Amino acid sequence: MSELEKKIKQVEMCGEMVDVVFTEMIRPTTKEELEKMDPDTRMNYKYLPPLNTNTYIAEEGIECMQDIPVAMRDGIIIYADIYRPVGTGPVPLIVSWSFYGKRPFDGQSEWQIMGVPPQTVSNMSKFESADPGYWCRRGYAVANVDPRGIGHSEGDFILFGTQDGKDGYDFIEWAARQTWCNGRVALSGNSCVAMTQWRIASQCPPHLACIAPWEGTSDMYRESLYEGGIPAHAFVSMVLRDAVGHNYVDNMVLNAQKYPFIDSPYWKDKDPDWSAIKIPVYVTACWNHFHLRGSINGFRKIKTSKKWLRTHRNFEWPDAYCNKYLTDLEKFFDRYLKWERNGWELTPKVRIEVQDAFDYDYQTDRPEENFPLKRTKYEKLYLDASDMSMKAEPVASESKTSYEGASEEVCFDYRFEEETELTGFLKLRLWVEAEGHDDMDLFINVQKLSTTGEWLPVTLFGENHPGVWGKMRVSRRKLDEKLSTSYQPVQAHTCSEKLSPGEIVPVDIEIWPTSRIWHKGQQIRVQIAGRYIREGWFEPLQWEADNKGQHIIHTGGKYDSYLQIPVIPPKYQDGDFIYR
């Protein structure tokens, strides 16, 4: 791939002028021109349908107003395709806002949605978004929007920042004034299309009635570019190649290298004003996906009293397009976009899917009042390097174990003597030492073993998920005292503290939340390594680890290494009968 052109542009962020690195987007071209290019040149181009403002019948009963220009407050013009039912009066609008192109490719054979059979979703649907083929037939309009700089829209594109939020505000207020709209607007979609919802909603557009961010990262620094403080740029680099337009895009990878600490205005600009979100919100979170932390924390941070969380084990696309939860979402939208008194308020505030093993679940949609669950009892399992186990009581004698940082791993196991449910945040305290280097990258998996010691993974699409996870670059071990709790340590990411030879330090590692049952006699395992152990897991995630020499784990005595677990007691127990 040839190098894309770069430029530095000053952008106001959080009241300061910040130098932001922009790069050319993937350039739009015609199909004919694309076919004539050599492979190296073709990498920098993608097909983009020509601008063509018109209205046509997209499917029977559905009209598309294509390439509709909308002016932003600074005069920039962006474009949207708006689908609406034919022959109706004003209807509510569902908006899909992301840098994925507003008009899908020519056929679904080119963009299969993983886990969803072909033709489940119509060709009118924007990627990871509300499908006009479903919603227009239920009395809604759907707007597929190309934000600033994307496709034929003017300007340069800043990912997940305040500018994107303000533009979303302007589009919503424009749409609410149109004769075909009833004045009530929602945002919907998963992944990237969920992430933009937090930014737009925090700007408080008056006609934004509700949002449904299903699976969306909320902290771009901690959950994407620097998870645990370990650089992870490959996935974002790949995603940036979906931004197609005539102008430039805020290159988050280059800016992450330019601004390696979180206290820069560049990163602060990407953090929504959570306290401003007071409209109804329906959040989902997958226990086995990298959007998990963002979804859970977004739900916890927003201030609205009308918020609902549903957690599940399935991947985002099958969950978003299955009939059961499409119908569920329709009830939510009917309540707040059409004012139907349909009993939505009786929906439990939190619904939990408790996983078991492989593709089996112990419970589905179990009603709860909050997250984390109020009845949680936090217990500690103490690591013992003398026999590579964990114990329910503190270990008196000091011991240590080690592994080669770049290629090996160690495991600590504990057997549950009775059925045990873990739902919520886990935390791992380790006392660590680096032999032959001044830093360590720690990759943690928490797994379930059978009564005979065999791994019992959760499976998605036939693949074994590596396990509940956490990561830590030891030089980034300092915690943010305001954000951290007794069950969720949050790294500060404001400085780097390298290790001295022979220095032993404690680190508190945030383990992302989960919900899973361990039956009597089954074991819990903590796997510690200097690399991400995939075992065939399909997502293209990569971290730029910095490991040399031996990693030493100290346990026992003054080195109180432990795994803190969120034990959920039964709601009621009568002898051997357990009611969860």
TrEMBL record:
Superkingdom of this protein's organism: Bacteria
Sequence ranges assigned to domain Xaa-Pro dipeptidyl-peptidase C-terminal in this UniProt record: 330-564
Keyword match Disulfide bond: no
A GO molecular-function descriptor: dipeptidyl-peptidase activity
Pfam (any one): PepX_C
InterPro entries, per database record: AB_hydrolase_fold (IPR029058), CocE/Ser_esterase (IPR005674), Galactose-bd-like_sf (IPR008979), Xaa-Pro-like_dom (IPR000383), Xaa-Pro_dipept_C (IPR013736), Xaa-Pro_dipeptidyl-ppase/CocE (IPR050585)
Keyword tags: Hydrolase
Name of this protein: Xaa-Pro dipeptidyl-peptidase C-terminal domain-containing protein
Organism lineage string: Bacteria, Bacillati, Bacillota, Clostridia, Lachnospirales
